[in-house]
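Z., the sequence and structure:
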Amino acid sequence: MLIAFKLKLLLACAAGFAGPLAVAPLVSEMSTHGAQGEPGIVEIAAGSFAYREAGDFTRAGQQAEAPLRALQFRKPLHIMREQVSSADYQLCVRDGECHALDRGVTIAPDRPAVQVSWHDAQAYASWLSRKSGHHYRLPSDAEWAFAAGSKFRDDGAPVDADDPAKRWINRYERESERDLSDTTAYPFGKFGLNERGVSDLAGNVWEWTSTCFVRSRVDEAGKAGRPTVNCGVRVAEGAHRAYVTDFIRDARAGGCAQGVPPANLGFRLVREERSWVASVSARWSRMWMARS
């Protein structure tokens, strides 16, 4: 069932959005940043915000607006200031832990790793965790939205019970206004910092999250019921929210679940902060394994 669903998404999106792919110049500049140090991390203080649920929602068999709810983060969020660079990703490739980037991707310490799948991002997070001794992972969609602040685009659209198609037309027109012809992976800083000090959010690189695609029914009060979860499709965040099949590296060539496809797929990671006791214990464990 899952394989059939992925193939259905792939064929549907390829039919609507396939086109010529842009090829960037290849630069043989490498970074040692990932080997000796760790990426720049922004600490975002605990707080609350209004979050629009990700997924597909219906009421009485008709399309419904996604629920909007207040979320509370009780601990600070530690997230990468920039996306993972292509040069740092290349170090994982050299270690044989990550799949190679496409030949058209620029390899440089100040350019994002793009045209990577959700599985590629997961592999890099595991590799970096082993190398650094810290736990790195993809953010959830809610965490990404919290870090994005004013850069997060609420994709909720009003539903006209008499004409549900208006919602889809409204969304399509809104997404079509964005210029997706520029697929260049620009140096970090091109799209600026948000008010929380996080760089290049909602530019032309959509970022993988850990959140699975869900379908759910909502009641008259707007409360969602038990969802049908499909983790073969993940939420990618950028200039708009996208739902992309997890093995896709370039959504422009197919693999988007709905809407205008992302220009580039990349990622940034969250670093889990451990207690002092856990950190010391992990350090001793690594030293013991190295001696043995």
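The first helix runs from residue 2 to 17. Residues 2-291 form a domain with the paralog of FGE (formylglycine-generating enzyme) fold (CATH 3.90.1580).

Let me know what you think.
H.
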